[in-house]
Please model this.
Amino acid sequence: MYKQRTGIENPSYVSSNDDPVEDGDQNGSCEVQTEAEEPSAPKRDNWGNDIEFLMSCIALSVGLGNVWRFPFIALENGGGAFLIPYLITLFLVGKPIYYLEMILGQFSSRANVKMYNYAPIMRGIAYGQTMAIFFVTTYYSSLMALTLHYFIDSFYPTLPWSYCRKEWGDLCIDSKLDSDESRKRAQQNSTAVKKSSAEFYFINIVLQEKSNIDDGLGVPNWKLVLTLAFAWLVITVVIFKGIKSSGKVAYFLAIFPYVILLVLLIRALTLPGAFDGVLFFLTPQWDKLLDAKVWYAAVTQVFFSLTVCYGVVVMYASFNRFRHNIRRDCNIVTSLDTLTSLLSGIVIFGILGNLAYESNNPNIKSVVKSGPALAFISYPDAIAKFQTMPQIFSAFFFLMLFILGIGSNVGIISTVITVISDQFPNIKRWIVVLASVLICYGLALLYVTPGGQFVLNYIDFYAVTLVVTVLGVFELLSASWIYGVKNICRDIKFMLGVETSVYYRICWAIITPIFMAAVYIYMLVDYKPLTYNDVRYPESLYALGWCITAIGVGQLLIWGSYAIWSGPELSFDERFRGAFKPASDWGPLDPTALKEYQDFVRETTSIKKTGTWSKILDNIFG
Model:
């Protein structure tokens, strides 16, 4: 049934609720109601209390990227100097988007697809983001399988990556060797490139990695198949009852990793050479500040870490009480996320400083690996040299990574499940959960094959990074300029009773969209054919990759066209204009406060400004 669209100045209905909605199915949908019908509020789950939401957001945002991605990205892009563009980007891009998504989710009590009822022509953004987050949850779970594999290996009497096998030849150096033996081995065949046993173990035994995928991906590693299954079993148990179960587990998922991180911090800073590693991590390279690549890296790190423009934050916020103080939560989560990244960097590079010391290698950068290899090569290599209880600290580290992965992936997969449940409320939730988990597990098996890392790198670039960056720009434009900053601030005033600061107004309307657009332009200008370990993909996969990107971004065109043509029997121009106006069911779900909001809108509606600049200033500053 077509839902009548109305202008902002005269919404068909609005609702709010100070108290939690009664528990029920997560459908988030409601039919258009009239005053005479006096409808009851649609049923939707709510967090058990406000702390559950905060803990869930912390568990979501503080994940694997803080531990293994941030330290290397910072080192590669100026060390301590990277913190300047990172903090600026966090302040001008990350925090404004995080708060905006919290606001829209809580105000509408809808997940990301139905949230776009404020501008139906832009609903394709949500479908594209859901497609991207679906791919993220598949490869994120494969990283959890790796951490669980290493966690189990940590209980061997001798760490299995600490010594070389005969088949690895003379180019392998035992990670467990002391400095004298390392120097002696390094002097032999000094011209040859040597690798640690930790690197050989990760590539040859854990990944069983191929040099290329020209002849296919190969058969999955049975050990990773099992650890992947266990990871998905844990996720299923956590999300099976929705936020009723995940909200309770969030306390553990958010707090326990910090206990382990504190233990590792104390241990790291007491190791010989640790302070050299920390200084290497924090020492600024000021010339990097003028490099556009550094700012691009800062933006992508903020996106990856805070999980913005994926729809997850919107989904979590949609289960809040209508009057919940999300401005406070936004400040806590964004600040804690940054502090955790810095703390993780100090822990990791303190341990890597000890690795360089034990290896008699003054060049710390030469012992650092990027991406997942930092967690699965550099850290195991370093911990193998511990003289006291290396198994315990190894188990602590990989247990922490596994818990961080659970916390993030619970939110990621829940977004996909919530979108499906909202669109098909008649399907029982447990069916949606099981079907989603089984499909994701089946696809995740691709990443635990010998060619799995090629697939992960490929999907991450074409199906996630490119798609999310483009749709992120349109998300900001749709909220700030189609719905309008002025209307967002008005809704915040009604919901929270506070005025929105000039900082948020200017960021939403101007600074953040420009930042995002600049990042996308830089990606296109700097584009080079994707490689993995300097190995090119088959030529046909490049064409397929761009097709995957086009499908994700093309959702905007597909659902925009549907919004226009599904309108009433009016002229094309009227249907086109109507698709930019809020649908009749846009607004908070509780019908009790619809009249309050409607009256509030009428009271605060000012005379429309004339002239381009007057309209722009009125939209930003009200």
